[in-house]
Specification:
The complex is a heterodimer.
Chain A (H helix, E strand, L loop, with lengths): L1 E5 L3 H13 L4 E5 L2 H11 L3 E5 L7 H11 L5 E5 L4 H10 L3 E4 L4 H16 L1
Parallel strand pairs in A: 1-2, 1-3, 3-4, 4-5
Chain B lengths: L1 E3 L5 E5 L5 E6 L10 H10 L6 H13 L8 E7 L10 E4 L30 E2 L4 E6 L7 E2 L5 E2 L10 E2 L3 E3 L4 E4 L3 E6 L2 E5 L1 E4 L10 E3 L2 E4 L8 E4 L3 E3 L7 E4 L3 E3 L3 E2 L5 E4 L3 E7 L2 E4 L3 E14 L3 E15 L3 E6 L7 E5 L3 H34 L5 H38 L3 E8 L3 E5 L2 E5 L3 E2 L2 E5 L20 E5 L5 E3 H4 E5 L13
Parallel strand pairs in B: 10-14, 15-17, 16-18, 17-19, 18-20, 19-21, 20-23, 21-24, 22-24, 23-25, 24-26, 25-26, 26-27, 27-28, 27-29, 28-30, 29-31
Antiparallel strand pairs in B: 1-2, 2-3, 3-4, 5-7, 6-13, 7-12, 8-9, 11-12, 13-14, 30-33, 30-34, 31-32, 32-37, 34-35, 35-36
The chains are: A alpha/beta, B alpha/beta.
Chain lengths: 122, 511
C-alpha cells in the first residue's frame, strides 16, 4: 500500500513513517505542505494520505478540498492539533475520512489507519 | 599401380588407397587420343567413376598438353574423399586438479612470505557446484573412393559413467554435485565422497584441511596445521599444537599434546586418549581415557572421565562430572567449575547491561510527558508535537524492554536447566583443588579418598524457575563417601569463600 505523509515538521513525518514501518508499510512519499503534495500526488498515486492541519503555503483543509475535486476514493486522515468540534466537522465536510488529534500515541495512529483502511475495504 | 595405355603414351595411375587417379601424357600422344571422351573411356575401362569434376580436370590437362611437347605432363583427374571418423566422448572434470599453488595473499607487501600451511590437497565440493561435463561422442562421415565405393567411417565411443546419488547429470551433460564432500573418480565410478581419508599425517604434504563432511586421519596432525571439519573427525595418531575445529564428534585416538598453543573445538562429543596443554571447547560430552594435563576445557554437557586423572588447568562443565583423580599430590592448581554454562552467563550479563539504559530512557520520556501534560492542559502546536514525540519514544523504549525481559526469563530457565552440580571422583581428590559452584569458591584442604560424590541439593520448596540463579548455599553442597555411605557438607572439608558474582576462570576464548 502506498501512503503519502504531508506535514511541515520533519520530526512528525519521521514518527509517522516509523509507525507505518512497524505496520509493514514501506512505500511512503513525503510532502512538506499541500502544494508540494499536489505536485507529487499524480506520479505517486497513494492509497492513503495522512495530512497535517496547519502548514505554510497550503494548509491541510485546502489541500483536501483541492484533492477531492479529482479524487473521491483515496482515504485521507487528518493529523492535527485542532480538536474543536467545528474544525472536525469542516474537515469531514471537505472529505476527510478520519481524524487524529496531536499529541497521539503510536497505537492510536495505527488504530486509526487500520479503521480507515478497513472501512475502505468494506 | 601405373598402367600404360596400349600405345604406351598415356598412363593411368590409381593410388593404392583408391583416393586419386593421375593421368600422365608422354610426348607424342596420337592426336585421336587427345580428347576428353577418349580419356574418359580409358578411365571407365578401369571402373573409375566419372563426374563433372573429372571431366573438367581432363579438359584442363589436355589444354596444357602441347603437341610438340618434349616432356611428360601429369594431372590428378579424379579424387575420392577420405572417411572422417567420429571422436570419442570424454569427461571434463573442472575440479579434480586440486593442488592449490602456494600464493602470497593479495594486497600483501612486497617480499611477504608464502603460507605453505595454506596449501591444501583437498578440493572440497559443495552441493550444487558444477563438477564437470560429459562430452558426447561424435558420428563420423563416410568417404568415397574413385570407384564410387563407400568408405565407412567409425563413430566415437561414449563415456561410460557410473554415477550414484551424489552426482546429477543434466540432459546437456553437465555434472552437478548433490552432496558436500570431495570428488572421487575411479572410472567408471564418479561420486562425491562424504568422507575424506588422509592416509598419513596432516602436514606439508596435505596442507590445512577444510572439509564439509567427515575426516579420518590415519596418522597425526603436525604443529601449526589447521583442520576445519563440518562432520566428525577421527585422528588415529598424535595431534600436536594444531588448530582443530569440528562441528561433529571428535575422536583423538592418539591424544593431543598442544604445548599451550593448540586449540580444539568439538561441536558434539570429544573422545580422546589424553589431552595435554590444550585449550578446548566441547559442545556436548567429554570423554578422556588417561590424563588431562594443564588444559583449559569448557564442556557443554557431561564429563565422563572415570579412569582419567585431571591435573592442573581448568575444567568447566554444566552437568555431571565423573573423574578418576582430581589434582596432584604436589597440589598443582587445578580448578573445576561446576554447573556454569559460560555462554549463557555471558549473555545474561550482556542483557543485564542493556536494561539500565533502556529503563532510564523509558523513565525520562515518561517523566517529561507527565510534566508537560500537568503544566499545559491545552498544549500548543509545538507542545503537541513534543508530546507526540515523547509518546513515540516511550513506545519504542517499551518495545525494546519487553523482548529483553522475555530473553532474560528464558536464559534463567536455561541456566537452571543446564546447571547441575554433580561431581564424582572415583579415586582421589587432592588438596589444592579448587571447586567453583556458582559464586562459591571451595578450596580443598586435604586429600579425600574416593569414590566420593559432591552434589548440590536445594530443597524443592526453594526452587523457583522464574527467579535469577541464586548464589549457591554452601550448606546445600554435600560430599558423600560412596563406600562408607557417610555425608558431610562441603564447608566441613574445604575452605569456602563467597563472592557477589562469579569470579572464576573462563574458557570462552579457549578455542
Amino acid at each position: 500500500m502506498k501512503i503519502m505523509l504531508i506535514d511541515d515538521s520533519k520530526t512528525m513525518r519521521n514518527i509517522q513513517e516509523s509507525v507505518l514501518a512497524q505496520l509493514g508499510h514501506t512505500a511512503i512519499e513525503e510532502a512538506c505542505d499541500g502544494q508540494d503534495a499536489l505536485s507529487k500526488i499524480g506520479a505517486f498515486q497513494p492509497d492513503l494520505i495522512l495530512v497535517d492541519g496547519n502548514m505554510p503555503n497550503m494548509d491541510g483543509l485546502s489541500f483536501v478540498k483541492a484533492f477531492r475535486h479529482g479524487n473521491k476514493a483515496t482515504p485521507v486522515i487528518m493529523v492535527t492539533t485542532e480538536s474543536e468540534k467545528s474544525r472536525v466537522i469542516d474537515a469531514i465536510k471537505a472529505g476527510v475520512n478520519n481524524y487524529v488529534v496531536k499529541p497521539f500515541t503510536p497505537d492510536l495512529l495505527s488504530q486509526r489507519i487500520n479503521e480507515t483502511m478497513n472501512k475502505k475495504a468494506a | 599401380m601405373g598402367n600404360p595405355d596400349p600405345v604406351k603414351k598415356v598412363h593411368l595411375d590409381i593410388a593404392r588407397d583408391a583416393l586419386s587417379v593421375t593421368i600422365r601424357l608422354e610426348p607424342g600422344v596420337p592426336p585421336e587420343l587427345l580428347n576428353v571422351a577418349s580419356l574418359i573411356a580409358t578411365l571407365r575401362g578401369r571402373q573409375v567413376q566419372i563426374s563433372p569434376d573429372v571431366e573438367s580436370r581432363i579438359s584442363a590437362l589436355l589444354k596444357s598438353y602441347a603437341p610438340d611437347a618434349t616432356e611428360q605432363i601429369r594431372a590428378v583427374v579424379a579424387v575420392g574423399t577420405r572417411p572422417i571418423h567420429g571422436t570419442d566422448g570424454r569427461l571434463d572434470l573442472t575440479c579434480l586438479n586440486n593442488k592449490a599453488p602456494a600464493e602470497i595473499p593479495p594486497g600483501s607487501a612486497e617480499g611477504a612470505a608464502i603460507d605453505h600451511h595454506a596449501r591444501t590437497i583437498v578440493n572440497a565440493i559443495r552441493t550444487g557446484e558444477v563438477i564437470g561435463r560429459v562430452i558426447e561422442p561424435t558420428v563420423g562421415e563416410d568417404g568415397f573412393n574413385v570407384f564410387g565405393q563407400r568408405l565407412a567411417s567409425k563413430s566415437g565411443k561414449p563415456v561410460f559413467l557410473n554415477l550414484d546419488s551424489t552426482v546429477a547429470r543434466t540432459p546437456d551433460g553437465e555434472l552437478w554435485a548433490q552432496a558436500d564432500g570431495v570428488l572421487e573418480h575411479r572410472p567408471p565410478l564418479l561420486r562425491v565422497a562424504r568422507e575424506l581419508l588422509i592416509p598419513g599425517f596432516v602436514d606439508f604434504t596435505t596442507g590445512n584441511i577444510a572439509f564439509p563432511g567427515n575426516v579420518q586421519v590415519a596418522k597425526g596432525v603436525r604443529d601449526c596445521f589447521e583442520l576445519h571439519v563440518e562432520g566428525d573427525l577421527t585422528v588415529d595418531g598424535l595431534v600436536e599444537a594444531a588448530r582443530i575445529n569440528a562441528k561433529g564428534n571428535v575422536f583423538l585416538n592418539g591424544g593431543m599434546a598442544a604445548r599451550e598453543r593448540g586449540t580444539l573445538s568439538a561441536g558434539r562429543n570429544l573422545t580422546a586418549r589424553y589431552l595435554d596443554n590444550v585449550q578446548c571447547l566441547v559442545g556436548r560430552d567429554l570423554s578422556v581415557a588417561k590424563e588431562i594435563i594443564n588444559c583449559r576445557i569448557g564442556v557443554g554437557r557431561k564429563v565422563l572421565c572415570e579412569g582419567c586423572a585431571v591435573s592442573g588447568g581448568v575444567l568447566l562443565a554444566t552437568r555431571e562430572v565423573s573423574i578418576g583423580q582430581l589434582g596432584t599430590p604436589s597440589a598443582v592448581a587445578t580448578t573445576v567449575v561446576l554447573g556454569r554454562l559460560a555462554e549463557l552467563a555471558e549473555l545474561s550479563d550482556q542483557l543485564e547491561g542493556l536494561r539500565p539504559s533502556i529503563t532510564a530512557w523509558e523513565e525520562r520520556a515518561a517523566s517529561r510527558l507527565e510534566q508537560i501534560r500537568k503544566s499545559t492542559p491545552r498544549p500548543t502546536a509545538a507542545q503537541a508535537e513534543e508530546l507526540t514525540q515523547l509518546e513515540f519514544e516511550l513506545s519504542r523504549a517499551r518495545a525494546k524492554s519487553a523482548p529483553i525481559e522475555a530473553a532474560q526469563l528464558r536464559l534463567r530457565t536455561l541456566m537452571i536447566e543446564n546447571s547441575r552440580v554433580d561431581l564424582m571422583v572415583h579415586k582421589k581428590i587432592h588438596a589444592g583443588v579448587t571447586l567453583w559452584i556458582g559464586t562459591i569458591c571451595a578450596k580443598m584442604q586435604e586429600d579425600i579418598k574416593g569414590p566420593i560424590r559432591i552434589t548440590h541439593q536445594i530443597p524443592p520448596e526453594l526452587v523457583d524457575p522464574g527467579a535469577p540463579p541464586r548464589p549457591t548455599i554452601p550448606a546445600h553442597v554435600v560430599v558423600e563417601d560412596l563406600i562408607k555411605g557417610t555425608r558431610v557438607e562441603l564447608h566441613q572439608i574445604a575452605r569456602i569463600s563467597k563472592h557477589d558474582r562469579y569470579e572464576g576462570p573462563s574458557v570462552a576464548n579457549a578455542a
